[in-house]
Design a protein that fits this description.
The complex is a heterodimer of chains A (about 725) and B (about 300).
Chain A (H helix, E strand, L loop, with lengths): L2 E7 L1 H29 L1 H4 L7 H33 L6 H21 L15 H23 L8 H20 L2 E5 L2 E4 L3 H36 L6 H15 L14 H12 L2 H14 L4 H6 L1 H23 L2 H7 L3 H30 L7 H34 L12 H6 L2 H31 L5 E7 L15 H4 L2 H25 L15 H12 L14 H7 L37 H9 L1 H4 L10 H4 L7 H10 L8 H22 L9 H11 L2 H12 L1
Antiparallel strand pairs in A: 1-4, 2-3
Helix pairs in contact in A: 1-3, 1-4, 1-17, 3-4, 3-7, 3-14, 4-5, 5-6, 6-7, 6-8, 6-19, 7-12, 7-14, 7-19, 8-10, 8-19, 10-12, 12-14, 12-15, 14-15, 14-17, 15-17, 20-27, 22-27, 25-26, 26-27
Chain B lengths: L1 H21 L16 H33 L4 H18 L31 H23 L6 H22 L14 H14 L1 H4 L15 E2 L5 H10 L15 H13 L14 E2 L19
Antiparallel strand pairs in B: 1-2
The chains are: A mainly alpha (about 725), B mainly alpha (about 300).
């Protein structure tokens, strides 16, 4: 057979590797910063750009899409070429992909601190960047698929199955979740409202974890772990079953983020059972990884790369067991909205994604630079510091989660909440928040040591930009082996593989979403729920801009401890005009769903003082100051466009209301400014603070009116 | 092998039935059980114990062979060999069912991807059975909550939780000796006022100042009152709040006894002239007209 000569493109691998290292450090640094903001709220919240609500999304986006994203591409570009025995189809597409992705990250790093956000978690970037992401993602997929089509290896290895599933699913998730109506160049409203928006968002959000943080990294594990251990993959059968089971089941699990919410109960139940059945498909990956090390365990003690990988795979196993447990209602009732979730995602993020990325980097950099690692000792130190860092991060957060949940829920003998003031449960957590920051700092120091070590390695080696290789061309005809596994068929057919995985991942989403959108009974309407006034709408957009949802939920669950604290539990019909929904996923501060109603209602003056200086009003509060809103003039030029956009989305403002909306806006602003003036606070009516007060005072009041009407009858 | 498999099947169905009835009963951690959910944890523990018993019995059964060897007076080597065999057997039945590393050439597939080879090891039995178990649980879960409707939905859970709390409140009321309301309230004694001060500092000082001088809320030490200055009126203002003016209702946070203490404390600081007082708001209140007339202000002054 004729051997063909070709070369692997290592330059693109190097570029993605360097981007992984740098963005990793940046993302972790921002993480440490926001962690410390909770400990030193007055000192570190540099308003407005670096307030917690604005840069928490910067942290999540940086570590997910910049650190892990570049890590995925580094590993895929390295392994894909070698597994297919061919160079990437187009060096140009590789370059466009690389630079396009870095530009997107830079755009995110600029827009998020500026408050340009859609407020949909892990999808905060505004519509022009969403379009850029879609284009660059297609470039990546196109390049990958063109490479697959010109391969010299008949069958696709399991790593590539995972790459294909990743490509197709992330494309679907991103496009569906990013349906939004632009109002201006940097502002849009989500196409969906309330419950539907929440369902789409968490279908996306959960599967960003599944198909961005999990499946591509399983693919990387299947290449780099056997390579580093020099051992055969443990079980081909297990690969097949856990791959298909994983991608089919994962897509259904999103609603577990919305248990006890206003999401229809049947959808919640689907989320629960599919999360529960996810344990073993997920563990299939862990088992196949760990058992691949059979016969190499003695080397694990010596080889730091294998150590990183073992901890990564173990952390994966822990996180994927914990996830299904957190999806059980009994446990979710305790864990949701607390730091337990934060602990959980960091076991996955630091442990699985972080440690695997580090292992791959230590393995790959010396190889493409044809040299040895600069210092094995430093790599070992990194390993121990990182492992300690994870422990110091996770343990206090678990503790904080249990403790806060129980403080929220305790009643005394008189049947009253033991901690009626939310802030008591926050001040109690401060030592835990501080210890967590210490753990995060350790992890970051480890990453910095790695950066030094790897850059020293790069400096002493020389990049093999085009690595020579040879392999026979594929024969035109293929005769299948006697008694081969049935699955071999589809491994030879990439296009069919792509289509089949697309069908498999579409089922769950369709079954959950279509009825929620089409069947009216899923979201019973409430007649007293009315659209926001123009001022409230503007205030709501400020709420979105400031990322208030990162710390405040707007979803009262049907628990006595919540209805006592916050009022009537939230109903699906209350959110029908919420583009986007603002349910949130974490209560660092109290729920705000009924902030303007019932026992929670406070005076305009309270809100004014509290936004100006939260600690002066609530001792021990860790909320950032928003005093800049007192100086910022509200941009009312956008009001007509916003009203029109809402009308397009089906919000029933009267025809032509856009033209007179600002008159109503000024009137309402004048009333609030008047209220404040009565309490001798003189602030012009045209300031942003007036709008945010209007919005906060509106929250939860609609249903209150309904009750009053009922009482009158 | 067959009998073991049958045992497994029996076990899996048994456990799933047990868990199904309760696995998802949510309850507020500190609330003593809604109807029937007390046994949730009990059943989970029973299920777990059954699992342990099953694994132990299989292990013991295997161990028996080793013990017999020892009884026969076999040498130490044989015991070690026996233990190894015992472990190997267990591994084959429950754990990995893997072909030993030494013999892996037998199951090496002809796959070769950039030097990565694949073995044709079987699915680990515990993994397979675990997966089946979760699938069965999933089916029964959906049947229970959405077809048979024998399990409560979140709102039903909530209603039973509230009903339970209401019942408790009812029994508390029956035994309570001094339930007060805005009509019956009187000034608390010195100890009560001291207790009221503690509540005040924790919950009220944010708006009314730590000495009652006022801030976001009105000054409580002057003789001007927006909603009346008698103990009954102060009690009422605290209990129900004045939502439209930003005074929140506290009846959910505090018992009526606590509100009494709080109102008494507020009355006690009248005329204390703290620094930085907020300008008077509301109507002048003349203590003479106060039917609940209290001790002279200067004797109850609070520092």
């Amino acid at each position: 057979m004729q051997l063909e000569k070709f070369s692997y493109d290592n330059k693109i691998v190097r570029n993605f590797a360097i981007a992984t290292i740098i963005w990793g450090v940046v993302g972790m640094l921002v993480g440490l910063w926001i962690a410390l903001e909770l400990v030193f709220p007055k000192e570190l919240n540099i308003q407005p750009w670096f307030n917690f609500g604005r840069i928490r999304p910067l942290h999540t986006n940086a570590v997910i899409f910049a650190f892990v994203g570049n890590g995925i591409f580094m590993g895929v570009y390295y392994s894909l070429q070698r597994l297919l025995k061919t160079r990437m189809a187009s060096d140009w597409l590789s370059k466009i992909h690389f630079w396009g992705w870095q530009l997107i990250i830079v755009a995110a790093a600029i827009t998020l601190p500026l408050g340009i956000t859609t407020s949909k978690e892990y999808a905060e970037l505004e519509w022009p960047i969403d379009i850029a992401i879609a284009i660059i993602w297609v470039v990546f997929g196109w390049n990958m698929f063109a490479t697959i089509l010109k391969r010299r290896e008949r069958h696709l290895y399991v790593a590539i199955w995972f790459y294909i599933a990743t490509f197709v699913t992330v494309a679907v998730l991103h496009i569906v979740n990013s349906f939004e109506l632009p109002i201006s160049f940097l502002k849009s409203y989500s196409w969906y409202a309330g419950v539907q928006d929440a369902l789409v968002q968490w279908w996306y959000g959960h599967n960003a974890v599944a198909f961005f943080l999990t499946t591509p990294y399983l693919g990387l594990m299947y290449y780099f772990l056997p390579k580093a251990a020099n051992r055969p993959v443990y079980s081909y059968k297990l690969s097949i079953i856990h791959f298909w089971a994983l991608i089919f089941i994962y897509i259904w699990a999103g609603p577990h983020h919305l248990l006890y919410s206003a999401l229809p109960n049947w959808a919640q139940s689907l989320g629960i059972v599919f999360s529960f059945t996810l344990i073993f498909p997920s563990w299939g990956g862990m088992i196949n990884g760990l058992l691949t090390l059979r016969g190499a365990w003695d080397r694990v003690r010596e080889d730091v790369i294998l150590k990183f990988m073992v901890v990564a795979v173990t952390a994966y196993g822990m996180a994927t067991f914990e996830g299904p447990m957190l999806s059980l209602k009994t446990i979710n009732a305790i864990s949701h909205f607390t730091d337990w979730t934060i602990a959980h995602v960091h076991v996955g993020g630091l442990g699985w994604n972080g440690m695997l990325t580090f292992g791959i980097l230590y393995w790959l950099i010396p190889r493409i630079f044809k040299t040895d690692l600069y210092s094995k000792k430093l790599a070992n130190i990194h390993f121990w510091i990182a492992t300690l860092g994870i422990l110091f991060y996770a343990i206090p957060m678990y503790w904080a989660g249990f403790t806060q949940a129980s403080m929220w829920k305790q009643f005394n003998d008189n049947g009253k909440l033991v901690y009626p003031q939310f802030v008591e449960t926050v001040t109690y957590l401060k030592p835990f928040l501080a210890t967590r920051s210490f753990g995060g700092a350790l992890f970051l120091i480890g990453a910095l040591i790695m950066m030094y070590n790897l850059f020293k390695t790069i400096a002493k080696g020389k990049l093999v930009a085009n690595e020579e290789a040879e392999a026979p061309a594929l024969e035109k005809e293929y005769h299948k082996h006697e008694g081969e596994h049935w699955h071999r068929w589809i491994e030879r057919k990439p296009v069919q593989f792509l289509l089949l995985s697309l069908v498999v991942i579409l089922i769950g989403g369709i079954v959950e979403m279509v009825p929620t959108f089409l069947v009216k009974s899923n979201i019973p309407t409430i007649s007293s729920v009315k659209p926001y006034t123009p001022l409230e709408l503007q205030g709501r957009d400020i709420y979105v801009r400031e990322g208030c949802y990162t710390c405040h939920s707007q979803m009262i669950r049907p628990f006595r401890s919540e209805t006592e604290r916050y009022g009537e539990y939230s109903k699906a019909g209350e959110f029908v005009y919420d583009h986007p929904f603002q349910w949130g996923s974490k209560r660092t501060g109290p729920d705000l769903a009924r902030e303007g109603a019932g026992d929670n209602r406070k005076s305009d003056l309270w809100h004014f003082n509290h936004m100006d200086d939260p600690q002066a009003v609530t001792e021990g509060s860790i909320m950032p100051s928003y005093s800049f809103m007192i100086d910022n003039v509200l941009d009312t030029s956008t009001t007509p466009a916003k009203i029109r956009a809402m009308q397009t989305l089906g919000v029933p403002y009267e025809k032509g209301y856009d033209k007179i909306a600002n008159i109503d806006l000024m009137k309402q602003a004048g009333q609030i400014a008047g209220n404040l003036a009565k309490d001798s606070v003189n602030v012009p009516a045209d300031r942003e603070i007036i709008a945010i007060i209007a919005y906060l005072q509106r929250l939860g009041t609609d249903i209150e009116k309904n009750k009053m009407a009922e009482n009158q009858k | 092998m067959r009998t073991i498999m049958n045992k497994y099947k029996l076990f899996v169905t048994g456990i799933s039935l047990l868990l199904l009835s309760n696995i998802t009963r949510a309850q507020d951690a500190a609330t003593p059980a809604t109807v029937g959910s007390n046994d949730t944890f009990l059943l989970i523990i029973i299920g777990f114990l059954l699992l342990v018993v099953l694994v132990m019995s299989i292990m013991l059964q295997q161990m028996g062979t080793v013990v017999r060897e020892i009884k026969k007076g076999a040498g130490a080597e044989k015991v070690v060999g026996g233990l190894r065999a015992w472990w190997g057997n267990l591994d084959k039945r429950i754990f990995t069912k893997a072909v030993p590393v030494e013999k892996e050439a037998d199951v090496m597939m002809d796959h070769d991807y950039d030097g990565i080879k694949e073995l044709d090891n079987a699915l680990p039995p515990w993994w397979k059975w675990g997966f089946y178990f979760t699938l069965i649980v999933a089916v029964f879960y959906i049947l229970r909550f959405h077809v048979w409707k024998t399990g409560p939905d979140p709102i039903q859970e909530y209603n039973s939780e509230m009903a339970y709390a209401a019942k408790k409140a009812e029994s508390r009321r029956a035994t309570a000796s001094e339930e007060v309301d805005e009509k019956t309230v009187t000034m608390a004694d010195a100890a009560g006022i001291a207790a009221g001060k503690i509540i005040f500092l924790k919950n009220c000082s944010a708006c009314h100042g730590s000495t009652g001088e006022g801030g976001i809320g009105p000054n409580l030490t002057d003789n001007y009152w927006l909603h009346g200055g008698t103990i009954n009126e102060v009690f009422k203002t605290i209990k129900y709040g004045v939502p439209e003016k930003g005074m929140q209702s506290w009846q959910k946070a505090f018992s009526s006894g606590e509100i009494k203490e709080l109102a008494s404390f507020v009355k006690s600081i009248g005329g204390s002239n703290p620094p930085n007082p907020k300008a008077p708001q509301g109507n002048l209140f003349t203590p003479a007209a106060d039917s609940t007339a209290i001790l002279p202000a200067d004797t109850t002054k609070v520092q």
